[in-house]
Design brief:
Elements lengths: L5 E6 L6 E6 L5 E5 L6 H11 L3 E6 L5 H4 L2 H7 L5 E2 L30 E2 L6 E4 L2 E7 L8 E5 L4 E5 L2 E2 L2 E2 L9 H12 L7 E4 L5 E2 H7 L14
Parallel strand pairs: 3-4, 4-5, 5-6, 10-13
Antiparallel strand pairs: 1-2, 2-3, 7-8, 8-9, 9-10, 11-12, 13-14
């Protein structure tokens, strides 16, 4: 019987971005999801060492700067790692304007030797668990959420937050698309699905369906932005 996935969260102080490490057992494989600005990557690598984990891949929910800044440090220790990211955002990795770091006077890039597409519906496996890539684009053009049905876990990136949603005032954002994807791809999941967002505290699908003022059932048909 497969055990329940463990998820460690590392919050960087600049943007409050949540980097995640997902694994099932010490000494087994893991994913690094959305490694952010310092000290996130160093914290991730320390946990990997402490639990003797074998990093299988870096998985990106999207490629905004605060979600990719830690990739170079991770790859310095694990240069062979593939980076899984939707094709729509592959150029964000090396373009500070597209990944939004230029807007903050920075130039954050991540040169990746091995990159693999993460299309909607793609199935991933981690140590006996199966995860489905859901289309949660809108905040960014290739946004993905990772859903493990058996464990009841959703890693939502910057699509759905506790009581909020991802910003859609960026040049490459699409508000209607984000709302539609949240309602059709995420809020249809079981109520007790535990949601790990890209910023802020964890929540559940049931709570967001009932109370989220942007996409909850009471907001049907309304525009908030």
């Amino acid at each position: 019987m497969t055990s329940q996935p463990q998820i460690a969260i590392f919050v960087e102080p600049s943007f409050g971005e949540n980097a995640h490490v997902v694994w099932l057992a010490d000494g087994g494989p893991c994913w690094v999801v959305d490694p952010g600005l310092p000290p996130s990557a160093a914290q991730v690598l320390r946990l990997v060492e402490e639990h003797q984990l074998a990093v299988q891949a870096i998985v990106l929910t999207h490629a905004h700067a605060d979600h990719i800044a830690g990739i170079p440090e991770i790859l310095e220790d694990h240069p062979e790692l593939p980076v899984l990211l939707a094709d729509e955002e592959s150029a964000f990795l090396t373009d500070p304007t597209k990944n939004l770091s230029a807007a903050f006077g920075a130039s954050i890039t991540a040169d990746v030797a091995v990159r693999r597409d993460l299309p909607p519906g793609h199935m991933l496996t981690l140590d006996g668990t199966t995860w489905k890539a859901l289309d949660s684009s809108g905040h960014s053009p290739g946004g993905r959420s990772l859903y493990c049905q058996d464990a009841g876990i959703l890693i939502a990136g910057d699509a759905l937050f506790a009581g909020s949603i991802g910003r859609t005032d960026f040049p490459h954002s699409d508000h209607d698309r984000l709302i539609r994807n949240i309602r059709e791809q995420l809020l249809v999941l079981p109520d007790d699905t535990l949601v790990y967002p890209g910023h802020g505290p964890a929540t559940t699908i049931g709570v967001e369906r009932r109370t989220n003022p942007f996409v909850g059932i009471d907001a049907e048909g309304q525009r908030f932005w």
